[in-house]
Fold:
Amino acid sequence: MIASLSGTVLKVGLDTLVLGVGGVGMLVHTTPATATSVRLGQPAELATSLVVREDSLTLYGFATDDEKLVFETVQTVSGVGPRLALAMLAVHSPDAVRVALGTGDLVALTKVPGIGRKGAERLVLELKDKLGALPGSAATSAAVPLDTGEVWREQVREALVGLGWTVRQADDALDRVAPRAAEGASVSALLRAALQELGR
Structure:
């Protein structure tokens, strides 16, 4: 895995740049902000992620390790590839992505080209707990205890209905995962369990 590159900027495009490393020009896909932050003929260092496909090896470059972390983490969601992950970072900073996912801000997420409402909802439910605490908060919102009545049931039902299932289908799945709630499972874990039940 090529984790980082350090070299001379040979060419700059809108969302690509070529970095000269040891006599080799490496094409790196990046955000417009990162591309405009480097200068032709000047040294630059980028955190990189190598995406391996059957017919290609593609390098993606980032100004910070945090951008790289967000890029790689959002791709763990089914249907999110490197191009969409890069588009998220072109529209939002890593902290803005964390806030949008942690607070369920679908409006912010759907500002990214290629992400619709259902895609945004899936991102929220699968990544809410995966990118760490929100900026300025002591803990993530998922740390709210579930022993306060049936709050979890409302939250999971709303998410399932938003993803296209009927209220009845959602309630059936909720009944099946209720024992896990009694054991103290988080809302996101309960949502994943309900999705598995509905997928059977």
Remarks:
- The mean pLDDT is 84.
- The chain is about 45% helix and 20% strand.
- The longest helix spans residues 167-182.
- The chain has three domains: 4-62, 69-127, 144-198.
